[in-house]
Amino acid sequence: MSEFELDGRIARDSDLVTELTLCQLRIQNDSRWPWLVMVPERPGMTEIFDLSPAEQALLSTEVNRVAGALKTVTGATKINVGALGNIVRQLHVHVIARFEGDANWPGPIWGFGQAQPYGESQKQDFLNKLVEALS
C-alpha cells in the first residue's frame, strides 16, 4: 500500500489547520470567502465512493462538523459543500461560507477574479475561532 501524499496544488494553495480522524482540514489562501478544504488522508482516492463505507460515513460526519463550525463562526447565509476534482483529482471536499453581497454572490466562486491572500493576523483570528468551534 502506498503512502498518502498531499497533491502539490492543494499544498500550494492552502495551509493546514488541523488533522481530524480521517481528513486534513486546510484553509484556502483566499480571504474573499471563508474557504476550507478537507482532504481524506488515504492514498489514491479520487472519488468519495473510493472510500470504504465506514470511511464514507466518517467523511460525512467530519464535513458536517466542519460546516457547522464554519456557520457558527461566520454567520454565513449559506455553507457550500462540494467535491469537484476536475483539475485536482485527489479526493478533497470544499466547505465554503457564502454571504449575500460577497465577491460573486450568488454565482459560483470557481474561476472568479484573483485570490486575495489573508493578512496573518486576520487568518489567525479566524482559525482560532474555528478551532474553538470545532472543540
Q: Shape, please? A: globular
Number of helices: 3
Write the element-wise H/E pattern from the N-terminal end onward: HEEEHEEH
What is the mean pLDDT?
Answer: 96
C-alpha end-to-end distance:
32 Å
- Which regions have little confidence, pLDDT < 50, spanning 5+ residues? none
Which percent range fits the helix content? Answer: 25-40%
Report the biggest beta sheet as strand number plus sense, adding barrel if it closes. 5 strands, antiparallel
Content-based structural category? alpha+beta
Radius of gyration: 14 Å
Strand line-up of the largest beta sheet? 1-2-3-5-4
β-strand percent reads 15-25%
User: Could you give the count of β-strands?
Assistant: 5
What can you see in these coordinates?
- The chain has helices at 8-13, 53-74, 120-134; strands at residues 14-19, 23-28, 35-40, 78-82, 93-98.
- The chain has 135 residues and is α+β, with helices and mostly antiparallel strands.
- It has a 5-stranded antiparallel sheet.
- The protein starts with 7 loop residues before the first helix and ends with a helix.
- The model has no long low-confidence stretch (mean pLDDT 96).
